Amino acid sequence: MRKSALALWVPALLSIAFAQTLPTGVKKITAVEGITEYRLENGLQVLLFPDPSKPKATVNVTYLVGSRHEGYGETGMAHLLEHMLFLGSTKHPKPIEEFRQHGAEWNGTTSVDRTNYYETLPAGDENLKWALELEADRMVNSFVAKEALDKEMTVVRNEFEMGENNPSRVLFQRTLATAFLWHNYGKSTIGAKSDLENVPIERLQAFYKKYYQPDNAVLTVSGNIDEAKAIAMIAEKFGKIARPTRKLDKTYTVDPVQDGERTVTIKRVGDVQSVLALYKTPDGAHPDMPALNILSSVLAETPAGRLHKALVETKKAASTEGGIWQLREPGIMLYGATVRKEGNVDEAKDILLRVVQDVIKEPPTKEEVDRAKQSELKQYDMALNNSERVGLLLSEPISRGDWRLFFLDRDNIRKVTPEDVLRVAKLYLKEDNRTVGMYRPVDKTDRAEIPPMTDPQLALKDFKGSAAVVQGEAFDPSPANIEKRLTRDSLPNGLKLSLLPKKTRGATVHGTITLRYSDLENSKNRNRAPSLAGMMLMRGTKKHTRQQIQDELDRLKTRISPSPTGLNTTRFTFETTRENLTPAITLLAEILREPSYPDNEFEQIKQSSLVGAERALRDPQGLAIATIRQHLTPYPLDDPRRPKMPSEEIEEIKATSLADVKKFYADVYGASNAELAVVGDFDPEEMKKLAASLFGDWKSPAKYARVPSEYKPVEAIDKTIETADKPNALFASGMPIKLSETHPDYAAITFANYMFGGGSSSRLFARIRTKEGLSYGVMSHASGHPVNESGTFLAMAIAAPQNIAKVESVFKEELAKALKDGFTDQEIAEAKKGWLQERTLTRSEDRALASMLSDNEFEGRTMAFQAELEKKVEALTNAEIVEALKRHIDPAKLSYVKAGDFKKASAPATQ
Questions:
Q1: Residue-range domain boundaries for the chain
Q2: pTM of the predicted protein model
């Protein structure tokens, strides 16, 4: 139908009207695919990305400062400052408590080129105004005080020590330091321990005042926002900050062209071997970067990548890895392999280097390049369907020079040819441009000249972008509205359906299918067959190989993945779009019903599982958690409910054969006791028909019964585990509790735990991390079984070995206070607000909602169960909370397990 002239003019008139009503001092710069850029007079760059399909908004501030900008003696300063900005500013002295009050998901991250801070919270003018005010205030008014530094430094040092426990991370850091002679990219973002411990507060304050300014920041606001209101709020909150008079100096250090292979060897206590090779690359905006990305995928993708086929499928390595650092200045691409202790790491290194170099002799095929491109482009498409994800991902192209590089990279990947990939391989995959584990003199060099810096504006001069993703509806995630929208049904074989249609951004659909099978008796003496049977489902069907499954998922822009499950439960989640829903569910049905269980894939899974278990053999965290879980769940040795130690897991993995896995599948798998939950843009009637055709005749061969969970009181223990050469330790404490989700005390215990150790504003977090500066990570967890009165209370914290005793002492003090006096009225009021908003955020995530609906169906519940729980929490008093705590938590019955290198920590310091 032909539009009237007036209809054609209306959008333009509205656009002009909006432009004319922009706040004073705000200028519109450009717009690409639904994202609009503005600039304030003080230099602040603003990106707005409206998306009404979910009831939440994300505020993200990216500062163009990272470890690249640190001076001598300042390593780790950018990351340390990131921590400090969560310790308060003039108008917001306790931001972590405010995050809880507003139900926000929040964090900050530091990289080599940038630092960012973000919060995702329920949409609304009040929450948005608060978030903008907080970010504006801490941009220039954060305390950055000496007293806070003294405490937070030890937290960051603990994070450093945690990384020192990870062999792969240590190898990467040392190899990176060898690859770069002068540039700060060779220094770990976490910094040197000596710098963390000795940095003067004056230098940290100067660093903050220099870089944390509006002209060095990009504010991104995405989600369910009114653009006109948002830009007005931003102008009000940030516009009053004066443009700084200082001038930022550009970094100018450039590493010389590498003139020979460099090597490094690390020797530490452990059970897993690794090899890593790094190659220098251009900066992230360089035109070679798209082809280099595809080259990395051709070499390192799993399972199609050449390294996987040459090393993992031949059993020379347990796993391979690869990727590229796309940075503001010239960076690296890396390739590595992990080898079990009894393997030959030297042979794996030779194979890895040969495969990488042979990509020049055996150029990438069109099939390899097309597969890699399809996989890369799928990630862009799926990201653009989630405004929150885009709002955070934009920090990376921003740090490389311009946010629009995100879209330019995508468009340029579409153009990559096999010839392009071969060309960049010849340029950069040179022996003299490589850093591995040894040094060799050579008669003739073959150096890789890294091109000069790229001007992003020149690269973007003709760039316009593609059409913006289709918007979804504004959806109310309240239990009542979810229940109102929900359709329930069941198939003759017993499979239950929970269907929640709604319009979503990008017409996305999320879902989960949960298969429940067998009983306790039928699960005994199976070793690892139940878990390996589920892991193997994605490794091949009677119609498709593992690679063909992955290719089909990429073609359909779909994700299918197993989720953590119970003893006799397998759950798969999926994410797709309305147009691809039918082929995606059809493929999922094929994966579940027609597994081929190929021999080579089974061996790969066993090797990977063994590596994971072997890593835990001497890891403080893995050993402590496994020890206390096993103690608190005292089932007999042959009972599958008994948690396993890493050594026991290794024995079970080795003892499980492919025949065992196939037999377990044949004995129990079926859909007679299953739930299918779907949330998103789909037609419920069509979904019912599709489910009936794909799963309606799939009956379970074995009788299903819920595995019972029994409350068994245990004797309290206090156990210390020595783990040599591990700078980080773990503290754990816990006890069994008689609690079910229907118990009268469930609401009180759940909420009490949230205040005590279940959140970032909890008592344990505030005392152990914020006040004492002892730990980077501390938490507690209280659980109740859905039916049986069998639950667990557990608390954990990581810390330096010499600080574990103090952590234990503080934990006991805080628990005693909670049991004696409970919590203040202000704590309770703020926690209730935050707890309820966090639950609202969870229900606004379609994937989480699908799992919730599936569990409700299994338990015979409606959303009224969630609403009733929230109602009970809202009505709780301090007296009721304390009484419930006393009924279930007895300090005398708590067990303690600590693991770490305590001998080294207590040894006298050497001169």
A1: 24-238, 262-452, 479-695, 718-906
A2: 0.87
